[in-house]
Amino acid sequence: MEERPETELISIPATPRVSTPEILTPTGQRSPRPPSKEAKSSTAWTPTSFISPRFLSPIGTPMKRVLINMKGYLEEVGHLTKLNPQDAWLPITESRNGNAHYAAFHNLNAGIGFQALVLPVAFAFLGWSWGILSLTIAYCWQLYTLWILVQLHEAVPGKRYNRYVELAEAAFGERLGVWLAVFPTAYLSAGTATALIIVGGETMKLFFQIVCGPLCSSNPLTTVEWYLVFTSLCIVLSQLPNLNSIAGLSLIGAVTAITYSTMVWVLSVSQQRPLTISYEPLSMPSPSSSVFSVMNALGIIAFAFRGHNLVLEIQATMPSTFKHPAHVPMWRGAKVAYFFIAACLFPVAIGGYWAYGNLMPSGGMLNAIYAFHGHDIPRGLLAITFLLVVFNCLSSFQIYSMPVFDNFEASYTSRTNRPCSIWVRSGFRVFYGFVNFFIGVALPFLSSLAGLLGGLTLPVTFAYPCFMWVLVKKPTKFSFNWYFHWTLGWLGIAFSLAFSIGGIWSLVTSGLKLKFFKPS
Q1: Contacts of 498 (CB under 8 A, 6+ apart)
Q2: What CA–CA distance (Å, rounded) separates 435 from 438?
Q3: Residue 163: other Cβ atoms inside 10 A
Q4: For residue range 169-194, what is the model confidence (pLDDT) as tens digits?
Q5: Count of beta carbons in the 10 Å neighbourhood of residue 94
Q6: What are the structural domains of the chain?
Q7: How confident is the model at residue 14 (pLDDT cuts 50, 70, 90)?
Q8: What is the pLDDT of residues 475-505, one digit of tens each?
Q9: What parts of the sequence cross the membrane (predicted)?
């Protein structure tokens, strides 16, 4: 038999039809897939950029396999992130197995709540045009700042900003960042938890009255006792250890919020409107009173979009690698969540104002339904609606309290250099729950402070993310990007001051000042 030339034994097809990546060719005989246009244009350095096909070409197959495996390992590890060992002991970063579904559940649970039910109150002062325009601008603005926070979570290679305060410290400096971020985030978390106790306790009382009806005992529970019942339920649920462990509760909170929001506006629209209804904005006795009432109404709309103080914390529960950064599933879940948030907030605001106009009570939709249609709507539907509100308040309490639990345990672990035991963790959460209970008993009007809460916490959602983008990303000075973010940030600060003044004016005119400063 005639021998073939030796060159034919090692010949390689010049142009194979299907090119496979180099990591899938164990013999290493094929050429790597040609880089795409995006890869050619990218000049960013990565931890594995030196392990390229050009670098590997003169190296033998065994050594090439070792380097390829090392490249894959480095890419799985991620951006060579410096991990803080203390993070493994804290509730927010203790578990990092989150995903896009968890992100959607948490964002929905944090984004929809009792504050949506008072949006028609704002429309009563703003009217149709300004009410819809303000709500639309606020929604688009906060959605953009949400995207900013998601992108800034890993803006610096090798660093994950797992908490809102950490990003503020990196952007504004350690001292100034703490001063700017700690108060509004703590006030938003603790203030919302206290308001949830008040709303949840009062709704449980209404639910009991509707279900029990005329058969109620002669000595029903007082409102404060219902606060205590609701607080006890919150404390029991708060024993779940970390943020990922309450994903099921967030799902329940999201489903109940969507359900009762839909039920509230459908029940209102389906009933006959009051005969004296009017859609003219409420008139005030003086021009200054009109300005302050409008500012308070805008503060109510701003408060409807709370929850940005939890964005980085939710993203911190996800694994992040070089190939699969955490911002991809986070943004995917957030987009789904805010689609449903818009589908709840806009119908509640528009449908509620259409049904009641400027006759809307200051307590919001639940009070309006109970006052105008308490005898027209079947008791079963009313009871289900109120029960769903209770479930949502219980779920929202957990996610808004988690940053406070994290701060408690961070202080403990930094001093003792060991994780919290079950008893210490439970003690912290019981203490926090009853502190909020006592605040709710002492200040039972917090549920009507939506305008003031919205004004004081507005920078967390609308202003600070714009400043952080400029200070961390450092766009070219005097470029459109630079001007745009500085303008948005300072507009947010100005609105915060105006809305806070409007909220304080609303409290003073409501007689709350006289309540606490009665002459002896």
Answers
A1: 295, 298, 455
A2: 5
A3: 24
A4: 999 998 999 999 988 888 888 888 98
A5: 18
A6: 85-510 (1.20.1740.10)
A7: very low
A8: 999 999 999 999 999 999 999 998 888 888 8
A9: 112-130, 136-156, 176-199, 247-267, 287-305, 336-356, 381-405, 426-446, 452-472, 484-508
